């Protein structure tokens, strides 16, 4: 066996090596030396006891001796650990200061760590609370019934931040009173429109899943812009009359669905051309439900804070604050006028200072409709143009109960559209087509009180 304080192979010459080495400070060179000693003696590095002696160091066989210099006392294994008696008080103060500094550093680092844990837990709880508040659990239940779309229905915030480059301003597509829309590219390379809302309206959250700053809403990205953009471009020609008529039918179907076929009737409350999106095939996508409200089945309307866009806003709703489905009907009537005239309802003023709706109805009643119609409509349209004009006049009547329902509007528009398609077919003779136009032309005109109601 090797002697005490030694380790190695006692059957080899110089096979037993000392375990203890003491030096005053250990340099990089000494560390390398100890490494080779341990390797040559086949002693694990962690078996060597390498001591730093800051006093008088003496290496003995299998051990070492480290003492403070004469006239000093303290810890010879610590730098500046050996001090004279008169320095003890100062050393104690320095030691306490150093210890307090280290303790303070530990407390600061520990506090930061704990705070971050608390913040993460709080953020997780808040997300769960927001998820419940905005009917996320209801959405999850619905997703269980449609496993094919479940993975696309709920996206984590981190993925949306990445998709928009952390909501970079360069990614903004537009915005309104309820939020800003960003173009996003998901990890699946699908292009989407992500709406980040501005405000939380707790009252409306309780009544309907409205757009708030809590959820970020991810929409299909519609690349062809809005109906407003197509109608009000600077070019002399816009959408063909055939496309405008079809678009009117599709908008009426969407609103009719909200009013009549949805499980709970919904009033859009902000129907306007900027909220009518068009895809690559010019198919209508009704958007922006930030102001929408549901109507309990046992009610015909509700009193609420007036919201909407000037020029499209129902004047009766504006004056009374009583919201009904007929408010959407009025706004849709304005869109029909916009399709016929290519005039902007928000900014249009007649030479007499009248609004677009008032001026349009006045000219229609006087039999001077051609003075305000878009020249492209005059060129491409037939007798159905008058039919659409008369329907628009019905929709914008001042008294809401005098307006048709959206379901009635849908039926009338489909009938007009079908007649137009039939008239355009090869089976339609010139005589029957002329008869159709002349019959509708005879219907132009109206009572003066209908015009006065739009003053």
TrEMBL record:
GO CC terms, sorted: plasma membrane
InterPro entries named in the record: Kinase-like_dom_sf, Prot_kinase_dom, Protein_kinase_ATP_BS, Ser/Thr_kinase_AS, WAK-like
GO biological process, one term: cell surface receptor signaling pathway
One annotated GO molecular function: ATP binding
Residues in Protein kinase domain copies: 90-420
Annotated spans, Disordered: 422-455
Residues that span the membrane, as ranges: 32-51, 93-118
Family according to the record: Belongs to the protein kinase superfamily.
Name of the protein in question: Protein kinase domain-containing protein
Species this chain originates from: Panicum virgatum (Blackwell switchgrass)
């Amino acid at each position: 066996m090797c002697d005490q304080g030694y380790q190695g192979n006692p059957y080899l010459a110089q096979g037993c090596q000392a375990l203890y080495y003491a030096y005053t400070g250990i340099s990089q060179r000494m560390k390398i030396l100890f490494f080779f000693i341990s390797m040559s003696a086949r002693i694990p590095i962690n078996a060597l006891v390498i001591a730093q002696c800051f006093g008088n160091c003496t290496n003995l066989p299998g051990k070492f001796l480290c003492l403070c210099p004469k006239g000093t006392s303290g810890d010879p294994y610590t730098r500046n650990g050996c001090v004279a008696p008169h320095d003890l008080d100062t050393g104690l103060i320095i030691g306490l200061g150093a210890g307090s500094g280290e303790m303070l550093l530990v407390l600061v680092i520990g506090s930061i760590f704990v705070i971050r844990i608390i913040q993460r837990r709080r953020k997780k709880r808040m997300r769960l609370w927001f998820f419940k508040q905005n009917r996320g659990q209801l959405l999850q239940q619905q997703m269980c019934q449609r496993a094919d779309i479940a993975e696309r229905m709920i996206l984590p915030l981190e993925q949306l931040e990445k998709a928009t480059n952390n909501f970079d301003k360069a990614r903004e597509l537009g915005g309104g009173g309820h939020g800003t829309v960003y173009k996003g590219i998901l990890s699946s390379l699908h292009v989407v429109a992500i709406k980040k809302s501005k405000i939380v309206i707790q009252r409306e959250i309780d009544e309907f899943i409205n757009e708030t700053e809590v959820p970020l809403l991810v929409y299909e990205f519609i690349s062809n812009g809005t109906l407003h953009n197509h109608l009000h471009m600077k070019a002399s020609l816009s959408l063909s009359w055939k496309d405008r008529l079809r678009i009117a039918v599709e908008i009426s179907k969407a609103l009719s669905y909200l009013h009549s076929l949805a499980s709970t009737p919904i009033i859009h409350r902000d129907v306007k051309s900027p909220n009518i999106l068009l895809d690559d095939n010019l198919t209508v996508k009704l958007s922006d439900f930030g102001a929408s409200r549901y109507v309990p089945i046992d009610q015909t309307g509700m009193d609420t804070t007036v919201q909407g866009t000037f020029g499209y806003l129902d004047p009766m709703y504006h004056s009374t604050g009583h919201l009904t489905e007929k408010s959407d009907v009025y706004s849709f009537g304005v869109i029909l006028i916009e399709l016929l005239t290519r005039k902007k309802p928000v900014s249009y003023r007649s030479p007499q200072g009248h609004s677009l709706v008032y001026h349009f109805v006045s000219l229609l009643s006087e039999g001077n409709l051609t003075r305000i119609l878009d020249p492209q409509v005059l060129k491409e349209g037939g007798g159905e143009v008058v039919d659409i004009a008369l329907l628009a006049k019905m929709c914008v009547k001042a008294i809401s109960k005098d307006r048709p329902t959206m379901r009635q509007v849908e039926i009338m528009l489909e009938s007009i559209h079908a007649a137009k398609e039939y008239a355009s077919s090869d089976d339609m003779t010139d005589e029957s087509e002329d008869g159709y136009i002349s019959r509708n032309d005879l219907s132009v005109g109206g009572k003066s009180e209908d015009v006065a109601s739009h003053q």
